[in-house]
Amino acid sequence: MANLSHDPAHQSFDATDPHSAEHGHGGSIRTYVMVALALVFLTACSYWTYTPFWPFGDNLAIKRTWMMAVSCTKAMLVILFFMHLKWEANWKWVLTVPASMMSLLLVLALVPDVGRRMRGASRERLTHAAELSAPPAAGKSGTASHPAEHPAGEKH
Questions:
Q1: Half-sphere exposure of 62 (CA within 13 A, CB side)
Q2: I want to staple 20 with a disulfide (CB 3.0 to 4.6 A). Which of 25, 39, 95, 153 is the partner?
Q3: 15: in domain
């Protein structure tokens, strides 16, 4: 395959050169194996939240925060090493930083709108809105949608 690079430093790139990783052309097999092992370890860390060995109990907030941190770390490893972003030129920051800032601003701008969406709702919308049914109270049979059966002659 022809080298289409116009940069003279890249004209003599040799994939068999042991020093090619030092010159920004990608990682070695050892690097990829280490990243793959790190991904396996991080997957085990994710699984850890569902085992009896998880030290924080059933606190969903801690589990979700842990899982998000592990997921972001795994995504960063895949992007940096397997998608070769680590060895890209500095132009990547020109593309990713503004896009990330705009994404963050969009999420922050929509949070209040989503949180207050029902405050100005019409009476008709509130009437037809989906609601979660309450679980049956302890010791009582039936719910609002499924009334308890009463013996004949007893008033409801």
A1: 9
A2: 25
A3: no
DSSP state, residue 81: I
| pTM score, whole prediction | 0.49
**Is 69 part of a structural domain of the chain?**
yes
**What pLDDT digit, counting tens, does each position of 27-45 carry?**
789 999 999 999 999 999 9
Give the pLDDT band (50/70/90) at residue 8: very low
Domain that holds residue 41: 21-90
Q: Is residue 31 part of a domain?
A: yes
How far apart are alpha carbons 57 and 62 in whole angstroms?
Answer: 9
81: number of Cβ within 10 Å: 20
Identify residue 29 by its one-letter amino acid code.
Answer: I
Q: With contact defined as beta carbons under 8 Å apart, do 78 and 27 qualify?
A: no
Query: Long-range CB contacts (< 8 A, 24+ apart) of 116-120?
Result: none
Q: Does residue 59 belong to any structural domain of this protein?
A: yes
Cα of first residue to Cα of last residue in the chain, in angstroms, is 84
Considering its fold, how many domains does the chain have in total?
Answer: 1
Beta strands in 20-132 (DSSP E): none
129 DSSP assignment: S
